[in-house]
Known about the structure:
The relative contact order is 0.11. The protein is built from 19 helices and two strands. Helix 5 runs parallel beside helix 16. The model is unreliable at 407-471 (pLDDT under 50). It is mainly alpha-helical. The chain starts with a helix and ends with a helix. It has helices spanning 4-15, 21-40, 46-49, 56-64, 78-99, 103-130, 154-176, 183-204, 207-226, 228-231, 236-264, 273-286, 297-304, 321-353, 359-377, 387-402, 408-412, 454-457, 469-480, and strands spanning 416-418, 425-427.
Amino acid sequence: xxxxxxxxxxxxxxxxxxxxxxxxxxxxxxxxxxxxxxxxxxxxxxxxxxxxxxxxxxxxxxxxxxxxxxxxxxxxxxxxxxxxxxxxxxxxxxxxxxxxxxxxxxxxxxxxxxxxxxxxxxxxxxxxxxxxxxxxxxxxxxxxxxxxxxxxxxxxxxxxxxxxxxxxxxxxxxxxxxxxxxxxxxxxxxxxxxxxxxxxxxxxxxxxxxxxxxxxxxxxxxxxxxxxxxxxxxxxxxxxxxxxxxxxxxxxxxxxxxxxxxxxxxxxxxxxxxxxxxxxxxxxxxxxxxxxxxxxxxxxxxxxxxxxxxxxxxxxxxxxxxxxxxxxxxxxxxxxxxxxxxxxxxxxxxxxxxxxxxxxxxxxxxxxxxxxxxxxxxxxxxxxxxxxxxxxxxxxxxxxxxxxxxxxxxxxxxxxxxxxxxxxxxxxxxxxxxxxxxxxxxxxxxxxxxxxxxxxxxxxxxxxxxxxxxxxxxxxxxxxx
Length: 481
């Protein structure tokens, strides 16, 4: 509930400025996501809810207890649906607040996310050093033989690391294309960080994490290759990104080979995911088309689980977010999914089509890569069911959305205006040149201001243009004559 004020303030700031189509679409989808579990909590009369598919066993319970039927919501587990509804507020807060940030502030948030990834790897290394009984493992039910960082599950820990990798690659590409003296130092530091994240993935020994990490490396190379004309160094950026991925993979194999081989020896289908999917589909068919209610997976799935498939551990998720959503939300949930996928595809396409090779443009494209990797991971696991990864996903979607709208940074500074004579745009912060000659002379021949070259007049930080207000006033006076 602490995130609710952030949601309200951010929503007010967003609605107080002109809205672009992607932002309008995003807000409508957010409203749909919020309304879905809320409508599932609305009490319905007995004549309505008893007619819904999959509610026959509830009627049998009332009849066995000899109790009259009462008004009940569509959800078969209202407390779980309410908890799921409340868990959406942190994600909404991150998404909406990111849309209100300036580009420079978004860069800071990206650095915070990268720092969180580095801290997770360091924490995971400490966990591995402490062994299976390490007190640094924050959860009782966890993967005791792998690094999990601040998570309970190694797959979610791996999801954080591969989601951060495209952002580091974007920053690396930007530094490679810069001309600063500290360029190589920054690139070397980013290559080391890139390798550290890949090392953390090796220690996690997550099969899905390893596969998606390789996809993140290839996507990062594509990100550098698309802007090969911008760096002018025979595509140096893509080569460095590929070399960083190769170096990190070597380090990962050096320190995490045993755990990786141990995980790859097992058949991916032996962990019960296929059986869970079959039971989930059967349960979803019984409550089609409205679903069983958001968050009701555990009790409803147990009703359809055969005794032969039961083990020492209970099934807490379908290990397929899309399939679990089909069970809990039915057709309305799938409609929201299709709307979101269409919106995301259109918004990401616009962001990539712009061919923006600046740091902000690269971060937007990196955010689209991270979001797609998390959606792909949701086919075999449930990374977006954790609040931390759901907030990372919301942040990535907000970065993609922000690429199509005007930022407050560009509108709050020098506002440009069009020159009616030449059709060019100049800033109000410094005088507009009215001649193309090197001596900055006026075309009508009345006066010349010797010593003002066009290059210096166009540069607001030039010493020649800021040494006195009198000289600037003279230019404005001549223009007004």
